[in-house]
Amino acid sequence: MKLARIEYQGEVYPATLSCNGYALQDGTVVPAEEARLMPPVTPGKILGVGWNFPAHIREMVERTAAGQKITEPPKEEVPPPILFFKPSSSLIGHGDAIVYPADATRVEYEGELAVVISRETRRVSPEEASLAVLGWTCANDVTERDMQSADKQWHQGQRATTAGGPGARHDPGSLHNHLPDQPGHDPLSRRPDHAGNSARCGRVASRG
User: Fold this and answer.
1) Domain architecture of the chain: domains with CATH
2) For 30-51, how does the pLDDT look when each residue is reduced to its tens digit (9 = 90+)?
3) What is the signed CA dihedral for 178, 150, 52, 117, rounded to 10 degrees?
């Protein structure tokens, strides 16, 4: 089942994808051309994960920004994930414009796997974290790299309104992003080397 949120005739509805468009909870089927796809959820928080697969770690370590080398993570076989927040204002609907910060100098995008959590979780194991997953979607993680390098918390580089476009639907099956090719930003379907899998990251994120 693929879940979605759509705007239809000025109202926002939860829906499921059907062969004829989008099915609302009352049974109404809205043709796809009459619906505007919204972010699939309205989260209270968006938690991002950095250093989450070896190829990306190598890429970031080799980069320089403002003449200073980006900090290298601990040399472990599976380094601990780096967690950061994106504001809910970063979410946009399908096809909406991404607005660069006024003082942007280097904006980059990355196709990411987004995990939608269905309930509050705290201090869970990887197995328990998996049980809290509502579904999966793709996300376009937009970052202002020079701001990120200057900010120890990554907030400046990740804060921009419209900088976190999610996929339009939850999907328990395979996921593919459709971002333009860019070095180091392979489609999700070609990323077998994710070091920080979702359940492991869920365990780390639920500490407190």
Assistant:
1) 3-38 (2.30.30), 46-205 (3.90.850.10)
2) 999 999 999 988 888 898 887 7
3) -70
